[in-house]
């Protein structure tokens, strides 16, 4: 049952599994299927995968628990949450404010890519009926008005769902969609493995060449882990604020981390070999200096080629289903990105949920239109607000929790819903991670990256 508290416009997740699905829905999105394969390709395959897994477990997972705990303890948006816990040190509200800025900026480029998934649904159909003119237009990712149209359409759908509140809108969509997406990816993997060239790609993806590990790779892995797990900007503080005390937070975080990592792993297992298959049929996948191409449009070039290789009827069927599901996965992520500034506006400015969604939506609409007309902004915004912004947010969350609010206070909150906490290893390990290991790892990665720039 949807439980929207109409008095203060705050909702509650209606069930334990509903929350895990919503948080997993926030995590699983374009980050897994669009961004991840291209960072893998850019950073030498299996070596990246290895570092990425470490980043998810050593940094992502502990930080996720931190965000959920802060959210549930305070029941507030990120700005309000830090203010509530910091007492007279109002300056900590800035961590939340930075998160909200990152969220709005990430959403602005995310919507353009999400719009592409929508465009490709129509592209596949146009391909099937033989409208080559429409295919050309829909495939052109640099076409400003087309990008803007689809991105704004996507934004409108997100606003519509957000207006319905957390429980009604967000929970339901996830239940069927995510398993369906996984099934289609697995089916495609099986198909790809039988094509010429696939084994070469498989080797690149699974056989690590440790000499490829360098500061740039580690920096990319860290940014990708935060992005893919929806961390560092308070999305999970916000989702945690709708959480009941019955939920076991570390357990929920483990489910979310594992499912997100799982989907990314399989997306890579599909797309890296598919690149080599595509290369066999003449599509260029290497740059002049022999590196794998990792442009923003990688997935959108390689996958349709693969679908069409399957034969028109079957291929188009797979193409349409795939892009519809990818669009839905992106939708559960844009919902979480938009929910953060919206919950801020509701809590702190006292606007109704509808007005808040429309106000924030208007700002995002302007920004996303700018990106739609010049897609070079995708890489620029992604570098600043994702690769730098999110780990920076994570660093501040760790410092705040470990050194000011204190892990002991957080553990009191975690204990609710986690009966065996006191006798668990988690109780000893998590505070060490949040206070020392995570902040040091993030700071070292930043330090080395900055050092390398000069
Ligand atoms: N994790 C999502 C993806 O992989 C994107 C996303 C949704 C996100 N909400 C977020 C990223 C909050 C950072 C913060 O597609």
Q: What's this model, at a glance?
A:
This protein is mostly helical and 454 residues long. The chain is 78% helix and 1% strand. It has helices at 16-27, 30-42, 46-74, 78-86, 93-129, 132-139, 144-163, 166-193, 198-206, 215-228, 235-240, 249-280, 298-309, 312-349, 353-373, 376-405, 407-415, 425-453; strands at 3-5, 10-12.
Radius of gyration: 21 Å
| CATH topology name | Hydantoin permease
Q: What is the number of independent domains? A: 1
String of helices and strands? EEHHHHHHHHHHHHHHHHHH
Description:
With 454 residues, this protein is mainly α. It has a single domain (16-452), classed as Hydantoin permease. 78% of the residues lie in helices and 1% in strands. The chain is built from 18 helices and two strands. It has helices spanning 16-27, 30-42, 46-74, 78-86, 93-129, 132-139, 144-163, 166-193, 198-206, 215-228, 235-240, 249-280, 298-309, 312-349, 353-373, 376-405, 407-415, 425-453; strands spanning 3-5, 10-12. It has a two-stranded antiparallel sheet. Strand 1 (3-5) and strand 2 form a beta hairpin. Helix 5 (93-129) packs antiparallel against helix 16 (376-405). It is globular and about 65 Å long. The termini are far apart. Bound molecules: tryptophan. The site of tryptophan has 16 residues, from helix 1, helix 2, helix 10 and helix 14. The site of tryptophan (TRP) has 16 residues, from helix 1, helix 2, helix 10 and helix 14.
